[in-house]
Write a structure and sequence with these properties.
With 151 residues, this protein is of the alpha/beta class. It has four helices and seven strands.
Length: 151
């Protein structure tokens, strides 16, 4: 086997589980993968339900591997992972960012790193300040939305 063939075969093997994860999720349902013991994830999912989205919760014990399969960068991972219309939302992504993502097919998903105090599901504090990171299909990241206190 030539080097290029080996690399192509390896890439296909890595991409297949992520494709299965996306295929398993219904296109118009937020499928939220969360640790069975996490409460803030449920609060975040409830906010999406209240906003009119259909939400399904899947209890997942091996979230790190799942996130890796989807292409969520390890250094900026958040709490839970949702899959919606072929894109991921990682962590406490606010509703306005998710709505904006629907028009951005160049992005694999959005990430709110860690668990910022005051973010959606973490207290909804109007003085919260954090960034929503966009992850391109090429893996590159950039600030997608700055969440800052309202004046």
């Amino acid at each position: 086997m030539k080097r290029r063939e080996f690399i192509a075969a390896l890439a296909a093997t890595v991409a297949l589980p992520a494709a299965r994860a996306f295929a398993a999720a219904e296109p118009d349902v937020f499928t939220v993968y969360k640790d069975p013991n996490c409460g803030c994830c449920s609060l975040w999912a409830d906010a999406y339900k209240q906003a009119g989205y259909r939400v399904e919760i899947v209890k997942e014990r091996d979230l790190i591997s799942f996130k890796q399969k989807l292409g969520v960068p390890l250094d900026i991972q958040g709490c839970h992972t949702a899959v919606y219309r072929g894109q991921f939302l990682e962590g406490h992504v606010p509703l306005e960012a998710a709505r904006m993502l629907e028009t951005r097919t160049d992005l694999a998903g959005l990430v709110v790193p860690g668990m910022p105090s005051g973010s959606l599901g973490m207290g909804n504090d109007p003085s919260a300040s954090y960034d929503v990171i966009g992850v391109g299909r090429d893996g590159k990241t950039s600030v997608f939305l700055e969440v800052r206190p309202k004046a």
